[in-house]
């Protein structure tokens, strides 16, 4: 049974705590995948609309980071940490580290760490993954 954020919001009966934590981990990984594989709209939001800058209008990776030949590693990590913290509320203390740039296959290997907040407990989550820059695809290195 897959127990995701939507099920939790509806108040559906949760599975056993071991299954629940496993399903929460899978759901968080899936949400991170959707964040990274999405691209923010290329819009210049006027200063008159400050809330728009904090809304779903900023869901996904900024085009300015993904369409570069030279990647600012610190900026990319900071942007990923911010996006995950903002759009994945079940994960706190998010940290992103670039493991390596793979120029031969145009991808970046990253390590994402954080703490899962569930009803029962706090649990660590660590993911090694790859962002394929050619087609903005996110894969988890199981």
Kindly describe this structure.
The protein has four helices and four strands. With 142 residues, the protein is an alpha+beta fold. The chain has one domain (5-140): Nuclear Transport Factor 2, Chain: A (Roll). The chain has a four-stranded antiparallel beta sheet with strand order 1-2-3-4, covered by helices on one side. The protein is globular and about 45 Å long. The relative contact order is 0.16. The model has no long low-confidence stretch (mean pLDDT 83).
Derived from helix and strand composition plus strand pairing, the structural class reads alpha+beta
CATH class: Alpha Beta
Number of helices: 4
Which residue ranges are poorly predicted, with pLDDT under 50 across at least 5 consecutive positions? none
What is the terminal separation in angstroms?
A: 20 Å
In the residues, how many domains can be counted? 1
Strand content: 25-35%
Helix fraction bin: 25-40%
**CATH architecture heading:** Roll
Output the helix-strand order: HHHHEEEE
Strand order of the largest sheet: 1-2-3-4
Average pLDDT across residues?
Answer: 83
Report a brief summary of the structure:
By secondary structure, this protein is of the alpha+beta class. The protein has one domain (5-140): Nuclear Transport Factor 2, Chain: A (Roll). The chain contains 4 helices and 4 strands, in the order ααααββββ.
What descriptive keywords fit this protein?
32% helix, four-stranded antiparallel beta sheet, 142 residues, Nuclear Transport Factor 2, Chain: A, single chain
């Amino acid at each position: 049974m897959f127990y995701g954020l939507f099920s939790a919001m509806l108040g559906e009966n949760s599975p056993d705590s071991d299954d629940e934590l496993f399903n929460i981990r899978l759901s968080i990984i899936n949400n991170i995948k959707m964040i990274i594989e999405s691209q923010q709209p290329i819009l210049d939001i006027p200063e008159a609309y400050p809330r728009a800058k904090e809304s779903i209008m900023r869901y996904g990776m900024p085009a300015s980071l993904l369409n570069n030949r030279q990647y600012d590693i610190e900026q990319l990590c900071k942007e990923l940490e911010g996006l995950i913290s903002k759009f994945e509320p079940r994960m706190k203390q998010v940290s992103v580290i670039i493991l390596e740039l793979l120029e031969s296959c145009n991808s970046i290997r990253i390590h994402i760490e954080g703490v899962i907040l569930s009803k029962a407990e706090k649990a660590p989550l660590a993911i090694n993954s790859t962002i394929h820059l050619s087609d903005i695809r996110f894969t988890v290195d199981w």
